[in-house]
Design a protein that fits this description.
Largest sheet of chain B: 2 strands, antiparallel
Largest sheet of chain A: 7 strands, mixed
Number of domains of chain B: 2
CATH architecture of the largest domain in chain A: 3-Layer(aba) Sandwich
Strand order of the largest sheet of chain B: 1-2
CATH superfamily of the largest domain in chain B: MetI-like
Shape of chain A: globular
Helix content of chain A: 40-55%
Strand content of chain A: 5-15%
Helix content of chain B: over 70%
Radius of gyration of chain B: 25 Å
Number of helices of chain B: 16
Distance between the termini of chain A: 28 Å
Structural class of chain A: alpha/beta
CATH class of the largest domain in chain B: Mainly Alpha
Structural class of chain B: mainly alpha
Radius of gyration of chain A: 23 Å
Oligomer: heterodimer
CATH class of the largest domain in chain A: Alpha Beta
CATH architecture of the largest domain in chain B: Orthogonal Bundle
């Protein structure tokens, strides 16, 4: 019975071969009609609709429907996969996580864009940001907005004790311990060290700040089991052992670490750019006006500042879309100066170089000013196997941070799992 | 269980044997003395099964009956087709997926060739093995705990008279709550810094305990949330079973000198088996497919400590977009739970049937 069905399906689908072939270029169609944009809300409440209104005012021939996505990256990916692999054209353009292009390109869930956009289109973005949207030499996504990790600190406490803003991770730990000993704050440092993608982000930043890597530059093999990385992981575990970081950090994602910081219970905090607005929101924060933000520290002996993991979202096109022409016009406008300026004015980090470096905008927006110059490090997401690679990183490191294995053993285990992932032999 | 004869037990072959003629419910010592599984049980099963099937053997004798039967099939055919399409097809498709190389292209899923690669990948993966062990142990642990607690609660409820309705309503609250919501509530309580339980442990031991930060406590904390939520379900089913028990058997046992403990162990509990079977069956099915609790509470962490088969299957399928191996996880999980339930049913049914036919 099952065999019969297998055969039927195999023949119905045209059998093997050509499975990895890219989506063929297609007629673009006119830049008018209606399209559906599927995205997780970003910026203030109702912001996507404001962007759409502005777009429609400029393009009267196109109407855009905003379809909100579940506020969880993995759930959104699951929905998109079911829709698009089932051949649905209900969605035309969707927002996609920065780390998706390789995986989505490999699974033919996104339309390659190079054939339809002018070659100089990509010059408007920072080079590294544009590169992360590529897979197999083709752009599968257009950057929409950015994000970067920052160190948030309690300005008031540093001033009180006349301490400088730390430039190295070692100084963060020392300064934090001093503030804790003085009884000014419960915990020294909180980040996102739970068992999920965010730990890979935190790890990528800290590892790079010590000169370490997770995967080799050519993407072929793991390089996580190195001395530099052992130093970093040992340092992270040491923070927990010394009580600088609460042991609960091993179950902290962004909301939990942010809550600890805005309750006034942590001296230092790593978070994305929205941490600035959140810690200065008088409705929820107890530390309004007492917070400073700086680039991330490096490790002693390395050149500072430490790099920020690049984050953010792209726009991608459903290969089954009937409104490719309108979708491309939408992408062109959304990555252009008018929309990107709207982003910057609404506390979302733009990806358009000219807006990112606009000094007038930077004056009112310290996050923008900080993000414009900060060095950037990317997660090793240029392989379709990135989810398994990342899983190999965060599960093993989380175990070491919780104290169930030694840092060295964890790095070795992570290295094994990453190797298997890169060879396509990891679950 | 023990083979000791508890105090007050009537001697074998005593009065209950005589009563047994009139009521089919009085169990014999042989079958109720404990889990004397194995030969007795299995041997007893076939007669019971056949006994039930016998009356059906001689049906559809007349031509008229056969015609009615045919008409019945014709009338139900459309509904059957729908049922097959929505239940059998997805199952068959995922089994087919698990047995072939799956690629996704602009044309949708492509299955090519027949291969066992997906399953060998599974069997060789430490992650899958861990998820399997975790899921099995977690299922056994929580179901046993729920069964014991649920039965105890049901026994108390049975004795209540006026307030039973209120108590039941109260008791059902956790069960009525959507798991995602209750899991989020537990997550707040377990929160490593602001959680109520963390503060409580700080007050009691002088040190804030981390409930979700390390493997052992995380598994336990999750099990507690599960037991909290599903014990009421077990209690209600067992209570229903208790209410249906004939009171005269217990009275008879008392007359024979059985204490309340003996009367419970030797008379009421064995009679409760059908109710317990249903409760356990439902719970095994649910517990084995547990997804929402680890998804909200731990995300499968710390490490892979609380990653269940369902969570793993979802991740492989929809995070890694590995459809072949993902389907293999799903299909093998379904097969495992099916086998588990059949084995359990066989063991339990056999014993019930045993009592019915031999008593």
């Amino acid at each position: 019975m099952f065999c019969v069905i297998t055969v039927l399906l195999a023949t119905a689908c045209g059998g093997s071969g050509g499975g990895s072939a890219a989506v063929e270029p297609r007629a673009v169609g006119p830049a008018k009609g209606s399209l559906t944009w599927y995205a997780i809300n970003f910026g203030p409440e109702g912001f996507p609709q404001k962007l759409i209104d502005a777009f429609e005012a400029k393009h009267p021939g196109i109407s855009v429907t905003y379809q909100p996505a579940p506020n969880n990256t993995d759930t959104m990916r699951a929905t998109l996969t079911t829709e698009i692999s089932g051949g649905s054209n209900a969605i035309d353009v969707y927002s996609g996580d920065l780390v998706w292009p390789a995986q989505f390109g490999d699974a033919s869930l996104a339309m390659p864009l190079d054939a339809h956009l002018p070659d100089d289109f990509w010059d408007r973005f920072p080079e590294e940001r544009s590169r992360t949207a590529e897979f197999d030499g083709e752009h599968l996504a257009a950057p929409l907005y950015g994000d970067a990790g920052f160190l948030y600190y309690r300005k008031d406490l540093l001033e009180k004790h006349d301490l400088p803003v730390p430039k190295t991770w070692e100084e963060v730990a020392e300064t934090a311990a001093k503030l804790q000993d003085a009884g000014d704050v419960r915990y020294g440092y909180v980040g996102q060290w739970a068992n999920y993608e965010g730990l890979t982000v935190n790890w990528t930043e800290m590892s790079a700040a010590a000169g370490g890597r997770t995967v080799s530059a050519d993407g072929e093999r793991p390089e996580i089991d190195s001395d530099a990385n052992a130093r970093v992981l040992g340092f992270m575990r040491g923070m927990i052992e010394d009580g600088v970081a609460p042991s609960a950090t091993t179950s902290f994602q962004e909301p939990q670490s942010l809550q600890t910081f805005i309750e006034g219970d942590a001296a230092f905090h790593r978070n994305w750019a929205h941490g600035w607005g959140e810690s200065n929101n008088p409705e929820t924060s107890h530390v309004v006006g007492k917070v400073g933000m700086s680039p991330l520290p490096a490790f002693e002996g390395e050149e500072g500042p430490g790099p920020s993991a690049s984050g953010g979202w792209n726009l991608m096109v459903n290969p089954h879309s009937d409104a490719v022409g309108a979708s491309l016009a939408f992408i062109e406008w959304m990555t252009g100066p008018e929309a990107q300026r709207m982003l910057a004015e609404n506390a979302v980090l733009p990806v358009l170089k000219e807006v990112l470096h606009d000094e007038d905008l930077q004056k009112d927006n310290p996050a923008l000013a900080a993000a414009a110059d900060v060095p950037v490090v990317s997660r090793p997401s240029d392989t379709p196997r990135y989810p398994q690679v990342s899983h190999g990183v965060y599960t093993n490191l989380n175990g070491a941070l919780a104290g169930s294995v030694t840092p060295r053993d964890a790095l070795e285990a992570a290295s094994d799992e990453i190797r298997r992932a890169l060879n396509g032999r990891a679950l | 269980m023990s083979d000791d004869v508890p105090e007050g037990t009537p001697p074998a072959g005593g009065p209950p044997e005589e009563d047994a003629g009139s009521t089919a419910y009085v169990p014999r010592r042989v079958t109720t003395g404990g889990s004397t599984t194995g030969s007795t049980t299995l041997k007893a099963a076939p007669p019971g099964g056949q006994g039930r099937r016998k009356p059906r053997a001689g049906r559809h004798n007349s031509a008229l009956e056969r015609r009615f039967a045919r008409m019945g099939w014709i009338f139900t055919a459309p509904a059957l087709v729908v049922v097959l399409a929505v239940t059998l097809f997805p199952i068959a498709f995922s089994v087919a997926m698990s047995l072939s190389n799956v690629t996704v292209s602009s044309g949708g899923f492509q299955l090519s060739g027949v291969t066992t690669d997906n399953y060998s990948l599974l069997l060789g993966s430490a992650r899958w093995q861990h998820a399997l062990v975790f899921t099995v142990l977690y299922t056994v642990g929580t179901v046993v705990a729920e069964l014991v607690l649920g039965t105890m609660i049901a026994l108390v409820l049975e004795r209540l008279s006026g307030s039973r309705g209120w108590m039941m309503a109260l008791l059902l609250l956790p069960w009525a709550m959507i798991t995602v919501v209750s899991a989020q509530l537990w997550a707040y309580m377990y929160n490593g810094i602001y959680g109520v339980l963390t503060a409580l442990s700080n007050g009691l031991t002088g040190e804030p305990r981390q409930f979700l930060g390390t493997p052992g406590p995380a598994i336990l904390s999750m099990a507690v949330a599960d037991v909290w939520k599903t014990t009421p379900f077990v209690a209600i089913i067992v209570l229903a079973g208790l209410m249906m028990l004939p009171t005269d058997v217990v009275e008879a046992a008392r007359v024979d000198g059985a204490g309340s403990w003996t009367a419970f162990w030797r008379v009421r509990l064995p009679l409760l088996r059908p109710a317990l079977t249903i409760a356990v069956l439902f719970r095994i099915l649910q517990a084995f497919g547990i997804f929402d609790l680890p998804f909200v509470l731990t995300g499968g962490g710390p490490g892979d400590a609380t990653e269940s088969l369902a969570l793993l299957g979802w991740q492989v399928m929809f995070t890694n977009l590995d459809f072949g191996p993902g389907a293999a996880v799903a299909a093998s999980t379904a097969a495992l739970v099916l086998v588990g339930c059949l084995v359990f049913l066989r063991a339990f049914r056999a014993r019930v049937g045993d009592e019915e036919t031999t008593a």
